[in-house]
Amino acid sequence: MKLAQVFGAGCLGVMVLVGGCVALFGVGAAKVSRDRAAVDAKIERGAVEIETTADELVSTYKANEVRADERFRRRIVAVRGKISGVKKGLGDSPYVTLAGGAGIVGVQCAFDSARSEELAALNVGDVTTIVGECHGLFGNVHLRRCALKSD
Fold this sequence. Notes:
Distance between the termini: 76 Å
Largest sheet: 5 strands, mixed, barrel
Order of helices and strands: HEHHEEEHEE
CATH superfamily of the largest domain: Nucleic acid-binding proteins
Number of domains: 2
CATH class of the largest domain: Mainly Beta
Strand order of the largest sheet: 2-3-4-6-5
Structural class: alpha/beta
Number of helices: 4
């Protein structure tokens, strides 16, 4: 009988823990979804917080990543630069890379796959402006949820 009580109490504890985690992460996921929708709406409206060039963005990150994050991270940024690549990443998600000066680091701009037709018209060497949310330096400087800005 005691074994059944201990086992029952243990199962109840695990269920409470799992339920609490689901509730906690479920609420967090809803907030993230709302935040993404708000960012997407800002990008579509062209509500740019910072305008810069790919060269300036990359050189700022190379000089001091902490300071660059304070200035650019989680902000809607319009970046103008020369296209060095139009490719697909994991899950066939398209991205455009803008050259960032003389080094190998550039600005990698991730797009929704619904924009593939739009991106197919781009060519390496074209100069364009891309608007997206800056997510910092991970090899390249990364922008997410991007849109092409008509010049």
